[in-house]
Amino acid sequence: MIAYSEVSAFTSTPGQGNRAGVVLDAADLSDAEMQALARFLEAPETVFVTRMGGGRVRVRYFTPTQEVVFCGHATVALGLMLAQAGYWRGEALELETLAGRVPLRLVSEAGVPSQVWMRQRRHETRPLAPAYRARLAEALGISDRLIHRGLPMASASSGLWSAFVPLLDAVILDSLEPDLPAIEGLSRELDVGSLYAYAPMGVNRFAARDFAPLLGIPEDPVTGSSAGALFGLLAQHGRLPVRGGRAVGVIYQGHAVGSPGEVEIEIEVQGTNVVAVHVGGCAVLDREGHWRRGL
Questions:
Q1: Is 42 a catalytic residue?
Q2: Burial 2-31 (b: 16+ CB within 10 A, else e)
Q3: Which partner from 22, 199, 222, 226 sits 20 to 30 angstroms from 208, CA to CA?
Q4: Domain limits at 184?
Q5: Which CATH number goes with the domain that contains 182?
Q6: How far is the first Cα of the chain from the last one, in angstroms, to the nearest whole number?
Q7: What's the CA gap between 224 and 265, in Å, rounded?
Q8: How many domains does the chain have?
Q9: Inter-residue contact 30 to 59 (CB < 8 Å)
């Protein structure tokens, strides 16, 4: 029997935010067994710990249909479970992922873990040709006149690639009627994992929705990896206030699927260069269980 936890990340309310499966002892599981357990849990992503020790934790991430190189909300969920299980008390800790090494930081209040922060991998961007604007809008079920011309439309990654599409406001964002087959085709064509629509709610606050049918996730409730990539993109384009070489903000996501959550982001910048991307949030345990191998 394999012990697992189901955790809601980027929220302090069970059942909201984004659900992740967490398996702290997966050293003896095969690739096929990890995939089977992820499919059994049906969480957007499940994280498996395959080795732990010396301040490092080796992990792998699976959606219900395939392995992915990184997942932000599952990383926050894992950090909480490591702390609650007594494996981590706030000392330096680094995850070894297929996307690279990811340092974690634990925030506690009155001795109780309250937030997990991660430093995501190197921020990268790729331009999106203006000719894609109409196709992206059509895939989202809107006119291209509703795409914000003053915010960046591009592909970016700080762990997992997404195509970012800015909209004029959150009302438009909430009214999207996505064509998932079209989004899947565009994601494959652009070599990204998801199509991430976002809209401004203030100078450093944004609402977002993330569609990832190519990864087997029609709409991801709250996406930590893409949140970091977006803020890196915004900082790179001078669209965030910067003080002391840092830009901070919040992304609100999940309302459209009845599972709201908040992602906090801090970007270190030098001029227009993104030096580091930090993403953090709360998490709460939903339930625990055991999976019988061979099911």
A1: no
A2: bebbbbbbbbeeeebbbbbbbbbebeebee
A3: 22
A4: 124-277
A5: 3.10.310.10
A6: 11
A7: 9
A8: 2
A9: no
Q: Please tell me the distance from the alpha carbon of residue 233 to that of residue 244, in angstroms, as a whole number.
A: 18
| Distances from the Cα of 48 to the Cα of 14, 134, 212, 251, 268, angstroms | 21, 39, 21, 26, 30
- Over the stretch 72-118, which tens digit does the pLDDT of each residue have? 999 999 999 999 999 999 899 999 999 899 999 999 888 888 899 99
- AA identity, residue 36: A
The residues that bridge with 264 in the sheet, in sequence order, are 250, 280
Helical (H) or strand (E) element with 159: none
**pLDDT, average across residues 193-207:** 97
135 and 256 part of one domain: yes
Selecting among 45, 262, 264, 268, the annotated active-site residue is 45
Q: What is the pLDDT of residues 125-158, one digit of tens each?
A: 999 999 999 999 999 999 999 999 999 999 999 8
Structure tokens given for 79: 């950090």
Q: Is the pTM of this model over 0.85?
A: yes
Backbone angles phi, psi at 13, to 5 degrees: -110, 120
- Tell me which residue of 95, 6, 92 sits closest to 291, measured CA to CA: 6
Express each pLDDT in 210-262 by its tens digit: 999 999 999 999 999 899 999 999 999 999 999 999 999 999 999 999 999 99
Q: Note whether 154 and 136 are within 8 A (CB).
A: no
Same domain, 110 and 156: no
Q: How many residues does the chain have?
A: 295
**243 CB burial (10 A radius; 0-12, 13-18, 19+):** exposed
Which of 57, 113, 159 minimizes the C-alpha distance to 285? Answer: 113
- Which of 128, 155, 127, 135 is closest to 230 using CA atoms? 155
Helix (H, G, I), strand (E, B) or coil at 10: coil
Q: SS3 for 256?
A: helix
